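Q: I'm writing up a methods section and want to include an example of the input and output format. Could you take the sequence below and give the corresponding predicted C-alpha cells, formatted cleanly so I can copy it straight into the document?
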Amino acid sequence: MGAQARRPPPRIALIDGNSFYCACERVLRPSLEGRPVIVLSNNDGCAIARTAEAKAMGIPMGAPWFKIQHLQARGLVAISANFALYGDMSDRMMRVIGQFSPAQEIYSIDESFLDLTGLPGAGRDIGTQIRQRVLRWVGIPTCVGIGATKTLAKLANHLAKSLPRLQGVCDLSGLGPAELQRAIRHVPIRDVWGVGRRLAPRLEALGIQSAADLARTDGRVLQRQFSATLDKTARELRGEPAIGWEDAPVPKQQIMSTRSFGLPVRDLAELEQAVSLFTSRAAEKLRQQHSHAAAVQVFIRTSRFSAGPWHADSAVVPLGSPTDSTSVLLRAALSGLRSVFQPGFDYAKAGVCLLDVRPAVSVSMQGELFALDSGHAEKSALRSARAMAVVDRLNQRFGSRMVQVASALHEPDARWLMRQAHQSPSYTTVWGDVVEVG
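A: Here is the clean output for your methods example:
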C-alpha cells in the first residue's frame, strides 16, 4: 500500500519564448529571419529585445536607440514595440502550452510553469514535444527547463538556452543530489532566479559564487544575513519544493496606466484625451480581474530634462461607491486632471492609478449599502455592468479601441501619442492589418 500511495517525485517545467518580442515580429515577417532585429521601448527609447544576430553585433540590452541607430547601415532592423501583437501571440502560445498539463501557471508574457508530476513519458521527450508544437502552431521558438522545483526549472531553462548541445531542452528532475550539484556548479550566482545583480555581489563576497555554492549554504546563515526568501531559494536548489504554486495571478491592489508623451503637451483638451484613454485601459484591467476601485489618482508632470519650468502635481478623487464603470472612473479622472492642470507648462507625462481595488461586490449589495434609492441604483449599476461587458467583448473580438469613450478620440498625429516610427502592423488584433494572401 505504501508504494501505491506514494506520491511521484515532483517535476516542474518552465517554458519561455526565445527573444519573444522579436520572435513575434518574425512570425508574420519571415523576411526578418536570420537578420539582426531589436524591439524598441515606448517612444523608441531603447532596445528591450534582441535577436541572437543583434547580440552578435554587440548591442546590449537597454541600449539607447540614438546611440545604435547608425547600425542600420550594417543591416540592423529596429521595430517599435507593438504590445497588442505580443499580448495576442502570448495568449496563443500559452493555450498551446496548457494542453500538456492541467496545472499551468503563466508567470509572464513569455514564461509559463507546467506541473508534469505523474505524467507519463520522459521529461526530455515532453519538452521536445512542447517546443515542436508551439513552433508549428504559433511560430515562436522556445526553450524548456525541467526540475523538481520552480527554481531548478528556471535554472534548467537557463542551461537549455546557454548550451546548444541540449537542443533547447534541459531536464534536471531525475538527478540525484550529487549529480544535481555537479550540473549546477557552473551556473553563476547572479543567474539564479531570485538573486539578481544587487544581491549577487554580497553573496560572492562570502564565497558563494555559484548555484551549487548557494545550495550548500546553511539556511540559518542565509536567514540571518539575508532573508527567509533566499533560504527558500537554496532549498529549492537542493530539490526541496519551497515556493508555492499559483493557478491564477493575485489580483492587483492598484492598477496604473501611464505613458510619456511623444511631444510636449500644453493644451488641456489634449491632456484630457490622453487621460481618457489611460482611464479606459485601467478600467478594462480592473474588470478583467473582477474588481472594483474606490478612488482614482491622476498625475501630470513636465520633463526634468527640458529647459522649461518644472511642474508636477497629482490629485486623488474618492468615489461614492466602488465601481468598475469606465464612465464613473472617467468623470473622477477628468475632475482630478482639471484640478491640477496649470497653463503654460510643457507636460511630458500623465497617468491614472485606480486605488483601493477590492473584489467586485454584487450590484444589489451596492444598491442596499450606498444608495438612498436602492432600486434605482441597482438598475443603474446593472445597466452599466451590461454595457461595460458589451464594450469589452467588442474590443476583444474586433480589436483594442474599436469602441471607446468620445473624450479619448484624437487625431492620428496627436502630440501626446508615443513616438513609434518603426511599428509593425497589428496583424492579429486589428482587422485592417490582417495579412492578405493570394
